Inverse folding.
């Protein structure tokens, strides 16, 4: 390998390596725009761990709040919550203003619905 061949390979490397890396970056930007994957449409507001495998979650999906139950291998929507129950807080992303009486009322309503089925 002569010096001119070596110099030619270095010049090609300097030219094509940034083109290849730039192409990889652009392809990632173009095809990596999944909103739900990035968490722009859905957010877990509050999580209450009840046991090792069971939890209650308050989840914001677009502009609706849901009370959900999570257990081993299963997630269930228990109730859609009233938007007026929640308020924005400047120091936190979102703050939940819900008390035990409200939760008991939700579970009472859920139990009444199940008994009527």
């Amino acid at each position: 390998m002569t010096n001119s061949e070596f110099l030619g390979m270095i010049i090609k490397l300097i030219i094509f390596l940034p083109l290849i890396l730039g192409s990889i970056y652009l392809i990632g930007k173009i095809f990596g725009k999944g909103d739900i994957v990035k968490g722009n449409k859905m957010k877990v507001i509050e999580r209450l761990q009840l046991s090792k495998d069971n939890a209650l979650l308050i989840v914001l999906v677009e502009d609706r709040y849901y009370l959900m139950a999570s257990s081993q291998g299963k997630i269930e929507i228990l109730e859609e919550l009233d938007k007026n129950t929640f308020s924005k807080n400047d120091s936190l992303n979102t703050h939940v203003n819900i008390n035990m009486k409200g939760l008991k009322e939700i579970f009472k309503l859920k139990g009444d619905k199940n008994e009527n089925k």
In short: The longest helix spans residues 3-31. DSSP finds three helices and six strands in the chain. The chain has two domains: 3-33, 36-116. Confidence is low (pLDDT under 50) at residues 89-97.
